[in-house]
Amino acid sequence: MDTQQNGSVLKEGFLVKRGHLVLNWKARWFVLLPDKLMYYKYEGGKKDSSKRGTIPLAGCVITCPFLEQENRPLVLRLQTHTSDEYFLEACSREKRDDWAACIGAAVEKLRCADGQSPGSETPVQAQRKGSSSLKLHNVNLSEVVDAMYDVHSGIKMTSHVEHGSSFSNCFTGSAVVDWLVFMQMALTRVESVTLASALLEEGYVRPIGVCSVEALRNVALGEQFLDDSTALYSFSENFKKRGSVKAETSLSTLELSGKVKKRGFLLKQGHKRKNWKVRLFVLRADPGYLHYYDPTKDDLNPVGGFCLRGCLVSALNDSGVPSGVKGKVQGNLFKIITQSNKDYYIQAPTKQEEMDWIEAIKQLT
């Protein structure tokens, strides 16, 4: 998938794009040039030579993060000078922010080339500046909770014992504050406590156990939520009944409890039809699992996955099509053989990513 073009290519890789007419999501290969962002379709593990579309960058405004897509916290929005909107989803927060920064830099160069002073604030900068500080009157609490419950990047739910009572699927107050700061939903721990207290007040989360319940009864709103490793909280029962929460019923909690070590878009060959599909791969440790998701859907359930214990992973020769591989693939292939002797053929976007994934998986096998 390494694009053999001239030096004008600034960045390229997979993003998931929402359609204009039919509002479905499709994985596309994006190529960023100095004045435009082009996207292509992949068929059979190979990029379509004809582009699917072009987004002009002159006068473009970027909103990152764009938090108005339900169950999709990794979306950025591009609005062209003609007010056309494009919604693009990355595989991780880091990738999303990197794409936004690279596109923003290209927009800034075009603006300067049009004669505008380099020091003045651009619409892109204003959008990003507006999202960098916490303003509770502009925060959509429902979207914050959706992000907390996200199976990829949400808060980790664990079990605790307090005064002889056991509590499952809960989290500590300090874990919530850590997560809010890490996800940059608040800049400081004080802001995080204020935001978490608002979640309590609106009934999105609830206190469980003596410590957190007593705090809710005895202190003012701004201090209701405790930044404390002994204070326990959980999602409210009403939220748990919403359709977006599915993972617990379909997969072992243990499988999804490991720490996320690596995530990204890769192409995977199907086991029955032998076709190639873009999948979001999530590599977890303790326990070691590799799960893959359909990035075109907002379902939180993986479409597949396997334990890494006893697996064998190796690169495949880029010259010719290896045995067991169908289609005119473009190299960067590797193969995983599970302990039950099931073969997985996977294609990375670049040679470097292929090597990085192999090394990361080997550390957990």
Structure description:
The chain is an alpha+beta fold and 365 residues long. The chain has nine helices and 20 strands. The chain has helices at 93-113, 123-130, 141-148, 173-182, 189-201, 210-218, 237-240, 247-250, 351-362; strands spanning 11-18, 25-32, 36-40, 42-43, 46-47, 53-56, 61-63, 75-79, 85-89, 158-162, 165-172, 205-208, 232-235, 259-269, 276-285, 289-293, 304-307, 312-315, 333-337, 343-347. Strands 6-3-2-1-9-8-7 form a seven-stranded antiparallel sheet. Helix 4 (173-182) crosses helix 5 (189-201). It is flat, with a radius of gyration of 22 Å.
List keywords for this structure.
single chain; 365 residues; alpha+beta; 7-stranded antiparallel sheet; 20 strands
Order of helices and strands: EEEEEEEEEHHHEEHHEHEHHEEEEEEEH
Helix segment count?
Answer: 9
Q: Which percent range describes the beta-strand content?
A: 25-35%
Strand order of the largest sheet: 6-3-2-1-9-8-7
Globally, the shape reads: flat
Class by SSE composition: alpha+beta
Low-confidence stretches: 2-6, 119-135, 241-250
- How far is the first residue's CA from the last residue's CA? 27 Å
According to DSSP, the number of beta strands is 20
Q: Summarize the amount of helix as a percent range.
A: 10-25%
Radius of gyration: 22 Å
Overall pLDDT metric: 80
Described by strand count, sense and barrel closure, the largest sheet is: 7 strands, antiparallel
SSE layout:
Blueprint: E1 11-18, E2 25-32, E3 36-40, E4 42-43, E5 46-47, E6 53-56, E7 61-63, E8 75-79, E9 85-89, H1 93-113, H2 123-130, H3 141-148, E10 158-162, E11 165-172, H4 173-182, H5 189-201, E12 205-208, H6 210-218, E13 232-235, H7 237-240, H8 247-250, E14 259-269, E15 276-285, E16 289-293, E17 304-307, E18 312-315, E19 333-337, E20 343-347, H9 351-362
Antiparallel strand pairs: 1-2, 1-9, 2-3, 3-6, 4-5, 7-8, 8-9, 10-11, 11-13, 12-13, 14-15, 14-20, 15-16, 16-17, 18-19, 19-20
Helix pairs in contact: 4-5
